[in-house]
Structure formats: C-alpha cells, structure tokens
Design a protein that fits this description.
This protein is α+β, with helices and mostly antiparallel strands. About 30% of the residues lie in helices and about 20% in strands.
Length: about 400
Amino acid sequence: MGSRRIRGAALAIAALVLAGCGSHLDGTAHPGEIDVRTLDVGPYSTAPIEQRYIYYPDMHNGLNLAAMRLADNVVNGPEIDPMFKYGTGMKSFTDMDDATMLAAVARPVLANNGMLIGVSASNADQPLDKSKPTSDDVSFTAMTVVQFSDEAAAAKAATELDAADFGVAADVNQPLTLAKYPTAHAHWRPGVASMGSTLAHGNYIVDLMVGGKTPEVAQLTGLAEKVYDAELPLLDALKPLSKEDALRLPYDPDDMWRRTLSPSAFGTPDLLTQSRYELRGFLNQVGDQDYWTHLMKLSGVDRFSKSSEMASNSMLYRTRDTAAAVKLAGVILDRSYPGPADAPAVLPNAKCGESTVQDDFETKRFRCVVTYRQYVATVESDQLDDAHQRAAAQYGLLANSTW
C-alpha cells in the first residue's frame, strides 16, 4: 500500500458522466403550450418508456437499483472539506471484479464475505489531469463503500481488506491508529504522503485511501477522520438492504426515467447507461463539484436521470420550479458545450451548443437543452438536425408525461 502506482490509480479513476423518447396521448395541447403533434421528432418516440418497455425485477436489476441508492449516500468532496472541489470519478459495482479502486489482492475479500453492492468515489483539490496521474502536489480522497448481508460479515471483511492491502508491501508498511475511530484499521508507508484505512460500520465497510502534499501522519489521519465524519451519518440514515429488499425496489419512484428520452426504449437499470440519482449521486459523477454544487442548489435540483445509447446521452434534471428550470437551461451548456449552435426555434427556452472537444468518441459534437415546467433536459448528437429532432422528441415526451 502507499506506492506511487496505487496513488496514481486512485486519482485517475475516470468520471463516468459529464465533462461530466414520440405522439401526444390525448391530442390536445395545454393552454399556453405548443401542440407537440406538430413537432419534427424524426424517428424518435414521445411516449413514456413504460409504454414501450416492461421492467422485470430480478437480482441483477435489483442490485443495480440498490447501488444507485447507495451512491446517493456517498459523500461529495466539498462535504468532506471545501478544498476538495473536484470529483475524479465514481463507480458503482455489484461484484468484486468491478471494485477497481481496491487493490487486486483485496477484491476477493468482498466475494468471500458476501458483498451485495458497492460504490467508489474519489475527490481532489485539483482537477483530474490524465497526463499527470501521479502528481505529488495533490491532496485527495478515494473511498469505497460496500454493503454486506450483516454486521459480522462487514467486520470480518474490514479486517481482511486491511490485512490484504497491508500485505502488498508488508516489509515497509506500518500500522496507524485514528483517535476518533479506534476500531478503524489503518496503515501507511513512512515517507509516502498517503495512507489507507478500513472501518466496519453496521452492515457497511468504508475503505479509504487519502493523500496529502507532505508525508505527515497527523495530517493524513486527520483527513481520514474527516471522511468518516462526513460519510458515517449518511450510512446511519440508509437502511441496509437484503437481496429480497433489492428485488422489491421500485423501478422509477420519481418518474424520471419515464420522462427521459430513450430512443430504443432499453430501460433496464444499468450503472453506465440507464441510471437515476438524487443530487449527491449526480454530483459524485462530475468534475468540478464546487461549480455544479452551486449550480444545482441554486436551481433546486433534487433528481437526475440518464439514458445513454451509442455514447449519446439524454439527461434530465428536476428543478425547484419553472423559473428555476429556465435559469438552469440558460447556463447548463456554458462549460461543456460553449460553441455557438442554432437551437430549434419552435421550442421555448431551447438552446444548443457545440463541443470544443475533437476526435473523442465519448463526446458528441452538439448538445441541446429544453425545458418543460420544472424539468430541464439535454440531448446530444454529432448531427445538428438530429440533435434538434431529439430535442423536439424530448420536449414532446415531457409534455406527454404529466399524468
């Protein structure tokens, strides 16, 4: 533990989101609204997803929903300390092979103790620079939260995770103690400005790697305690789930997915392509957490959903009210799609932008934003005409999903 390579891996976890479907049912336009039957929606449907997709509960789907629920209770960087303004990635997982923030030797511990779900999230005081993943001039936190079936399994897993990580460099690692959390396992490599710690908390374990700019034990243990201070109350408020509980989780409790454009109606819950979160879960996925926290709270955003197909994302935000939605739509493209692009004139408050990123399959050339009542939605495409049709379909879908 504590090697520069592991430190770099913790910092370099990629952000999964952000730089991070069509006819009216009753055929009647509401007063003051455009008639969505007249919109050019191209090949896209404006029918809510439940008319084109049936959700079947199974363990895979249930655990994915449970992992999204857990992500909403994993602390953001600014909640730990204001200096951690930047998110450097979040990843949810339902098996040990995807727990990539943990050392490879530690991952089997999760399966051996019956893990259910986990979420990893990392933060730093500087934005992620993929060209310099091993910078020593960065303070960071990299946390993995895993839920087990019971407290005994969590306690056993915490002990074994620490032992496995310690054993990676047993000849140089030294144990540490945390004054505020005496039951936490912790160790570091003297002279290296990072440390690892693992703590069992009820049915959960919280596994940490934290790093500072200088190899000082007091600084590192104090930072680990700050992470626990912020995270443990969130876990106290989150009732652990059994596998049966996961099967019974509601598919779309806040009606976000049914309002999100999904061209092929592939509505299966998926941590990469079909996901929904509360505000904290969304913020764990963005780079400039300080900026997006301010923007989202200013608009009263409390729910977010995404449907992604062929690297084209449809994203939906639920704001405080109509006025807040209009304000958010006016600025939401400013950083990620700053280039000028024509918007579909028929859609109220619509706006489009062009990306300045070139030759990146993950980034579409154009993104458009539309609003409907308290909702703000973005769609994207490499062709502006297609982006306009998607925007029109998204607007029609929102209008058709008010019931």
